[in-house]
Structures are given as C-alpha cells and as structure tokens.
Design a protein that fits this description.
heterodimer; A: mainly beta; 11 strands; 50% strand; B: 6-stranded mixed sheet; globular
C-alpha cells in the first residue's frame, strides 16, 4: 500500500506569489490534516478535513486555505507569500477524526525568496 | 490554548548511554502520542498512550504516561546511532468537531559513536 504522498517535494517561490501543495492520503483514510514545520520547531496545525468538510483550523491567516476532494486528496493554498512562510509543509492522513495516529507524508519544502 | 512543552531541547550522548525526554501539557490529555523525525525526514508515529500511569515498551524504548495525564516521558536504554533524530510528543485537541495534534518543540538527540 502506498503511504501518504505529497507533491511537489521542493518549491521555490517569490514573495507575493501563490502556491498550491497537494496531498494524497493513505487509501481508505478520510481525514487529512495539514501542518507547517518551521526549522527547529514541532509541526503546527493548519487545517483538518474529514469527508470533504473543514473540521478544524489553526491560528493561521486567511491567506491559507485548503480543500478536500471526493477522492479524499487535498490541496493547501497559500496566497501572497511572505518570507516567513518558508517551511516544511506536512500532510497527515488518519482513518478517523479522533484519537488515532497520524501518518505523515514526506512533506513539501517551500522556500520563499 | 493547549500548550505542550518538551525538555531538553537538545541531548548529546555517547553511544551506549541512556536518554530521556520529558513532555508536559498545560491541559489534561485524552491520550499522548510520540513521533520520531530523522534528519531530513518526516515525523513517524511511534506509540500512543491512553491510560493514566500507562507504561509501554518497544525494545529499548520505554514510554510513560503520567497519573494526571498531563505529562509523559520517553526513555531509550543504551542508545545506538540509529536512534538519532528529533523526538516529538503530541497531544490531541478536539473541540467543536475538530481534531488536531499539538506538538512539542521536540528533543533533538545526537549519538556520538
């Protein structure tokens, strides 16, 4: 079985640009969460989607948005990129919404210059 | 909001020495999860503790959940170079239909051969 896959693996963008990151969860998993990990810190929760509905939102500005598709894959969009958005963006899938382990993808390394 | 704190931030040990990292939550947790992230990698689930005072072992790793379900520890006996990485604890937060993990900043373990 394939694990969580994310694309692209690396990305360089210029300040002010827009970026779309993609994630395919483990087959059968209906919950997808997005995390931002800045160097030297733990992952920070951005969004959770379950059955195509937003179930949770972290403390991130409205420049961040996401959606989940009927096949449970997900996109994370970030508008008007700032230098501070440079980070590893992790997608995690799980089989349930609560009390269950998260399976992380390899992440997308975003660099904003 | 919920906060999860980990100490120490860094730990350098000689191969064969023991290692312990501690995790404290500002709120009582329904469960606590531990993840390991190798350099350049993504977080990988190690274990979940649910019951008050629970102790679980995985070979040389011993995980403990405090009686008050607000603290936890991970102890590695006789470290090996394969133990190198950052160890994160994470507590779930669920409210208003959402489910998110709050991660500590992690303890980065270096093992000197």
């Amino acid at each position: 079985d394939a694990g969580v896959t994310q694309s692209p693996t690396h990305l360089i963008k210029t300040r002010g640009q827009h970026v779309t990151l993609r994630c395919s969860p483990i087959s059968g998993h209906k919950s997808v969460s997005w995390y931002q990990q800045v160097l030297g810190q733990g992952p920070q929760f951005i969004f959770q989607y379950y059955e195509k509905e937003e179930r949770g939102r972290g403390n991130f500005p409205d420049r961040f948005s996401a959606r989940q598709f009927p096949n449970y894959s997900s996109e994370l969009n970030v508008n008007a990129l700032l230098l501070g958005d440079s980070a590893l963006y992790l997608c995690a899938s799980s089989s349930m919404t609560r009390n269950t382990e998260a399976f992380f993808g390899q992440g997308t390394r975003l660099t904003v210059v | 909001g919920q906060q999860v704190m980990q100490i120490p931030q860094y730990q350098h040990v000689q191969e064969g020495e023991d290692f312990t990292t501690y995790c404290n939550s500002s709120t009582t947790l329904s469960n606590i999860q531990w993840y390991k992230q190798r350099p350049g990698g993504h977080p990988v689930f190690l274990i979940q503790l649910v019951k008050s005072g629970e102790v679980k072992k995985q070979k040389r790793l011993t995980f403990q959940f405090g009686e008050a379900k607000k603290n936890s520890s991970l102890h590695i006996t006789a470290t090996q170079t394969t133990d190198v990485g950052t160890y994160f604890c994470a507590g779930p937060y669920s409210g208003a239909g959402s489910y998110q993990l709050t991660f500590g900043k992690g303890t980065k373990l270096s093992v000197i051969p």
